[in-house]
Every structure is written in C-alpha cells, then in structure tokens.
Write a structure and sequence with these properties.
alpha/beta, Rossmann fold, six-stranded parallel beta sheet, globular
Length: 177
C-alpha cells in the first residue's frame, strides 16, 4: 500500500464535511487523538473540518503537531475543498456523497446514528457494499481509517445510480416503475 495512494503531493489533506447539519459526534470523532493518529499513520498531513451548525469546536493544531488541523463553519461551495482533498470524511448526505464520488476522491461516510428514520445510511451502506466508499459511525471511524485500503475501492460512475436508487425506493416501499 504505502504512501503512493494519492500521488506524490507534499500535502495530503483530509477534508471533513457535515454539510448544513449539526453533527458534533463526527467533528468530535475526527478531533480525537486516536483518529488524528490513525490519519497521520496513513500519511495524511492536514485535517480540514467543515463543522456546519455544530457547537463543538475542534482543537486547532499547535505548531509542532503531526497533523495540521483547521476548521470553518460554512462555505458557498465545498467543491474546491473536495478537489484538493486526498481523503474525504463526510456525513451521509447524498449531495456530499455523490459530489465526492464524481470527483473520484476516496470517501469515508460517517452515519449519524442520532437521526431517526435515517434513510441516508441505506445509501451509504449500499455504496459501501459496492466498494465505492467506506462506511463508519463516529465510534468506528478510527478502526475504519486504520483498516482501509484505498486501492480496494472501485471508481463510481454516475450511470451506476439506477440500482442504488432502486434499492432505496424498494426499501422505502415505493413500487417498481
């Protein structure tokens, strides 16, 4: 595996996004020392967190920290952040998932277990089953990072959405068209 997964860029940025929601459990998880150590061990150099409406403030890194950490609340477009990322850790919003996959970026989707009727987790789990991304919870994020092999992920092509949409529609109880 090694450090060649994202080419030979000097900076290997992990971009974390919660979208427009509040998902403090995810921000807290990526801000934990065990997750930061797991990312550093995989060769990542920067952690950039979009924290949305959350109230938990991540710890900005000290000068001597192994992983540079910064955060912000909202941006008019996260596309530039996604493009510069070597790894994306996202909430389970379909917009964030598909935008990241379209850019061909490795993705870990973290499911918000506090949401009732969380149909987003169905989408994330289906795409994980198809090896397009990794799926985790805030509690399993560190282990997912430690175990991930980005070379085992399959590229996503937009034409693949039909069976995924069909699966979700069936799950939600919509009849086949």
């Amino acid at each position: 595996m090694g450090n060649d997964e994202a080419g030979d860029e000097k900076n290997r940025v992990v971009f974390v996004t919660v979208g427009t929601t509040c998902f403090d459990a995810l921000v807290r998880a990526v801000d934990s020392n065990i997750v930061k150590q797991a990312l550093f061990a995989k060769g990542y150099t920067h952690l950039f967190i979009q924290m949305g409406r959350g109230s938990y403030l991540p710890t900005k890194s000290e000068e001597d920290a192994s992983l540079a950490v910064d955060y912000f609340t909202f941006s008019s477009s996260i596309a530039a952040h996604l493009r510069s990322a070597s790894l994306v850790i996202s909430h389970a919003g379909s917009g964030s998932i598909f935008e990241t996959l379209r850019l061909g970026k490795p993705l870990i989707v973290v499911v918000n277990e506090d949401l009732m009727d969380n149909h987003q987790s169905e989408l994330a789990e289906e795409l994980a089953d198809r090896k397009h991304l990794y799926c985790a919870s805030p509690q399993t994020l560190q282990q997912t990072i430690a175990d991930m092999d980005l070379s085992s992920l399959s590229p996503y092509s937009p034409g693949d959405a039909t069976p995924v949409a069909q699966h979700i529609n069936n799950f939600l109880g919509f009849p086949d068209d």
